[in-house]
Design brief:
This protein is mainly beta. It is 6% helix and 48% strand. Belongs to the transthyretin family. 5-hydroxyisourate hydrolase subfamily.
Length: 115
């Protein structure tokens, strides 16, 4: 069985740069919502460690909460209408590395399962 973990990467597509300094909360939603980790993205738009490392992995439903509005406001940019972007993901044991990229601007975002 492949070890499973979860990482993320945030890119500011409005400015063409990694989203350095974005606050992220990572929550396990089952059986009751519980905060697992808080992190801030580094100069590459990544967290310094996995939000869910292999040794702590449990299958289930999780949420990544990205403070997009705070990120743009801290840079003196128009925060648009996005505040917190919430991505709800289901993780399965043995499915390997989950990577959740977030590509964003103050007005839109997209995501996918990366590698």
């Amino acid at each position: 069985m492949k070890p499973s973990a979860l990482t993320t990467h945030v890119l500011d597509t409005a400015n063409g740069v990694p989203a350095e300094g974005m606050a992220i909360e990572f929550w396990r939603m089952e059986p009751e919502p519980a905060l697992i980790a808080r992190a801030v993205t580094n100069a590459d738009g990544r967290t310094d460690a996995p939000l869910l490392p292999p040794e702590a992995f449990l299958p289930g439903r999780y949420e990544l909460r990205f403070d997009v509005g705070g990120y743009f406001a801290a840079r003196g940019s128009d925060a648009g209408y996005l505040g917190t972007v919430v991505l709800n993901v289901g993780l399965k044991a043995g499915a390997g590395h989950y990577h959740v990229p977030l590509l964003l601007s103050p007005w839109s975002y997209s995501t996918y399962r990366g590698s």
